[in-house]
Amino acid sequence: MRAFLPLAFFLLPWLAAAQQPLRVLKTYAFSKGIDTVCHAGDSVCARRLITELLYGHAPDGIAYTGVKENLNVSLLTVLTDSVAAGRDWYRLLAAHEPEDLRYCYLEDYWARGCSDEYAMDAATLAALKTALNEYRWLNRFSAPLKVVVNIPAAQLEVRNAAGKVLLRSRVIAGKKATPTPVFSAPVTQVITYPYWNVPASITRKELLPKLRNNPGLLNEMGMQVIDKNGKTVDPSSIDWQKPFPYRLRQSTGCDNSLGVMKFQLKSPFDIYLHDTNNRAAFSGKNRFLSHGCVRVEKPVELANAVLGKQVFKPAFLTTCPANPVSGSYAVSPEVPVFFLYKTLDVTETGDLVFYEDIYEKAKEVSSHR
Questions:
Q1: Do β-strands 288-290 and 165-174 pair in parallel, antiparallel, or remain unpaired?
Q2: Which residues form a coiled coil (predicted)?
Q3: Which of 225, 222, 229 is nearest to 240 (CA)?
Q4: Which helix (H) or strand (E) holds 64?
Q5: What is the pLDDT of residues 292-306, one digit of tens each?
Q6: Among residues of the chain, what percentage have pLDDT more than 90?
Q7: How far is the C-alpha of 179 from the C-alpha of 291, rounded, in Å?
Q8: Mean pLDDT of the chain
């Protein structure tokens, strides 16, 4: 049972007798921060609104969706037919809306914000709509466990199917020049003592200029030169002033930039979750420092959560064997990870929280509306 519902819910039976069914549905949808403009026929509009109420739509600017959706098509049809026939659809629909208590709080803030008494500014109302939609959008995915990263909050949550937070961790996301994209993808493997295969852009822009001046830095950074066949190359055999047809790889160990744990994602991006060799950065005021990947403060807890059992103990982070061998653990079933961009959210106790629009995405979206 939902903790509380907007006043419109209790007025709907009376409204249904007095107005057209689609108008009633639009009133209900507006009370949830949904755009109700629709120029198609009543049945098409009703289905669109019901789909929005249950499942929202893909977040603005999403770059990739690699997690399979699971919409209840039969339920959508039953609800659409019930609206057309003027039957009682309210309780059935409400029973399938997001269960997360924070969604209910956001509904309440939206209702207040639309009243003259509270009169929230347009930017706050837009942020509320975004937050409400993203809770609904997550309802499209029926996985028993979800990992949700809110980029502006620099925070990761592991949630169960009902939206309960099982783990919360600070993260370090991409800096403004190299932002973490908004996307979703399943985590397929937990890799221990990973190699870091340095992206070509970092090699070209950041490392090669330094190595051309001082090739000895390779040893200091624990780097190896790898040829196109995957074999290591003797750095002394390389003419560093010529074009560089190789890639760089950092050896395994606690000094590796990925730390001792990496979470492999199935996506077209070279973006993943990982530990770090600079854990002090999690206590810093600025947690937007990476090239796009997301560093996790609690990688051991996250690994145990996605693997469904305690595989690692906390001491794993600080145990640094010499020349450790990289290993991997399959995540089965795969656990979806969602990288979202919400500049507003609400706590479990109902307090609104605002986050800096670090990539100026909210500003960009509002300028196109």
A1: parallel
A2: none
A3: 225
A4: strand 64-65
A5: 999 999 999 999 999
A6: 83
A7: 7
A8: 92
CATH topology of domain 165-195+252-340: L,D-transpeptidase catalytic domain-like (2.40.440)
Residues identified as active-site: 274, 293
pLDDT for the residue 13: 53
How, if at all, do strands 155-160 and 165-174 pair? Answer: antiparallel
- In the numeric block, the tokens 């890639």 are attached to 247
| pLDDT at residue number 21 | 84
Q: What are 357's two structure tokens?
A: 């629009």
- What's the whole-number mean pLDDT along residues 201-207? 94
Task: Judge whether residue 8 has pLDDT over 70.
Answer: no
Predicted local confidence at residue 282, as pLDDT: 98
CA distance 332 to 334: 5
Burial degree of 74 (CB within 10 A; 0-12, 13-18, 19+): exposed
Spatial strand order in the sheet of 196-197: 196-197, 247-250, 223-226, 232-233
Residues 311, 298 contacting (CB under 8 angstroms): no
- Report d(CA 165, CA 356) in Å as an integer: 23
Instruction: Give the C-alpha separation, 330 to 282, whole Å.
Output: 28
Is the four-CA dihedral 42, 44, 48, 51 of positive or negative sign? positive
Question: Hey, where are the domains in the chain?
Answer: 7-142, 165-195+252-340
- 276: CB partners within 8 A, 6+ apart: 172, 257, 258, 259, 295
**β-bridge mates for residue 145, sequence order:** 160
